[in-house]
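Re: beginner question about structure tokens

> Can someone show what the tokenized structure looks like for a real chain? I only ever see the sequence side.

Sure, here's an example I had lying around. Input first:
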Amino acid sequence: MAINKQRKTENQSSDKSLPSVGKTSGSLEKYLVPASLLLVTWIVYSPVLKAGFINWDDPSYILYNPLLKEFGWESIKFHFSNYFLANYHPLTMVVYSAVGSIFGESATAFHSLNILIHLANTLLVFKIAQKILHQYKWMPLIASLLFAVHPMHLESVAWISELKDQLYSFFLLMAILLYQIRENHPKKLLFYLLCLLSFIFSLLSKGQAVILPVILLLFDYLNNKKLSKNLILEKIPFFILSLIFGIIAVLAQKEAVNEAGIPLIHQVLFRFYAFFQYFLKAFLPINLSGFHEFPYSNSGSIPFYIYTSPLIVLAALYLLFRYRSNRYLVFGGLFFILSLLPILLVPVGKSFIAERYTYIPYIGLFFIISGFSDKHWFPGLKSNLRSKLVFLAPVLIFVSCFITYSRAGVWKDSLSFWTDVSKSYPNSTIALEHQAMYNYYEGNNLEAAIGNMDASIKIDSTYSAGYRLSGFFYQQAGSHEIAINRFNKGLKIDSLNVDMYLYRGNSWKAIGDYEKALADYERALVISPKRVDLWIARGALMADNLKQYDNAILDYKKAISIDNAEPNALYNIAVAYYMTAQYDSSLLYADKALLRNNKISLLVRSLSLYKKGDYISSLKAAEMARNEGLDIPDSLLIAR
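And the corresponding structure tokens:
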């Protein structure tokens, strides 16, 4: 209690007796300190500007997103009424669309946006720290510098797909700052409403923002506010919004929860160990990776040290209780724990921990670290220990700058990113899978892709995705017998994998076993009857190999009924109608395919017009097809 009384006295007299940034140090220091903070941050993250996209969510958000360049009212309505990649973050998607409509698929533009928002977030942390630590001159700078350059925050800045992290954090920090400003402002209602509005924007950017009401209560605790009726009532709208968006987030992520398929008892132990890892890496940022595998041993069991992790967490909670009289320590510790809690309670995705999840929680720990330099924060510490802890913050800042700047190059492209993951986790089949995808689609190195997937199968003989992709790559290399063997083994592990039935059907078709190809397509359609590509594949078999054009037309029409804008289905049905001498129907679907930019439909159109005797229109279509680089029969290019 003596400590709390001392703190209150210091706070009351701080403006007169203690220096604070922007009040007693002059206008030069007022602007020079934050400007220097932003400059250091920009330099540390500048290598990210040379980075590209990586094949982990970036293609879905940017490269293959049909709404990216269609920014407008319709796309905004779509984003607000739909989930995207197991998330409900419509504001993030609107920003993606807006930036994409201006800069297209420019990786530099999206990286620049992330860095600029991170700079804004750093400045917000600095201002919030000044509000909390206004009687301590350098502690706000130390805390915000740690936030700015810590290597665990690199993922949130360097990964284009984590724009949602930047946006939700910006509005969350803005809400906190507005809440702090409101304390001593005559227009309290205005700032309360602005805080609530900022919270809504944060929730619309990422569901993780649901933690704000609890954080606001922590600030009330820090400001020594008594729990009153008004204090509770003013938080009710925040908690209601958190509940609503929390439910939405759970519904959106229900398929991604425990995506790795970890048993429940293991999940509990891993959550405790994850908490320990998040805490440890704040002070010792080593063994960093863009993807962290679950810590199973080679035999598939849990290492012994995982079982001790609950004791470590209990020890941390005990220390908070033991030093509960230190209001700043309790605030920082609970800030870290409570803001991390939603991630620990509802694990999503395939990774054990994710460095991006520390972006907001670490703020609490950084406030504590910045306080080691002040004797009032930890009055119980021996002087020789405090003299050593004083160096923790500057050393950590220096080391963080070096590591973050160095590791920024990891995000250069997919290959460098996943190769780095493999260095940390040599047995990561997921890393090998993504390296294979890069080698095939971007590196044009089919042999390397095959090598990646063969290596993944050696690591884990039960890895069904390894057999699926290995078979696919062998198929692309023309080794259909090996591909079929891979698919056979994969289907023994995952008998409901639609892709493997489709791919195996394609290989049966390639070697002329049409009966087995048909059987595989039909099995796939039973499992997934709304897959357009399955109907097209079976239709193509009917038309090209079995010459059953009427059945092919039925399959193509089924594909069109699922997606009436599918250009391949529209083109194929045009061909099938042409082969059955139904030229008017062929022209109808060829024109629809052309509207979807399927240029090869010009050839079908020319042929159908020729058969109908409209030689002038046929010639025009043939010339257009030739201009598109298509091979056109000479007979279609002769004027009649």
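Each token stands for a local structural state, so reading them left to right follows the chain. Residues 1-25 have pLDDT under 50 and may be disordered.
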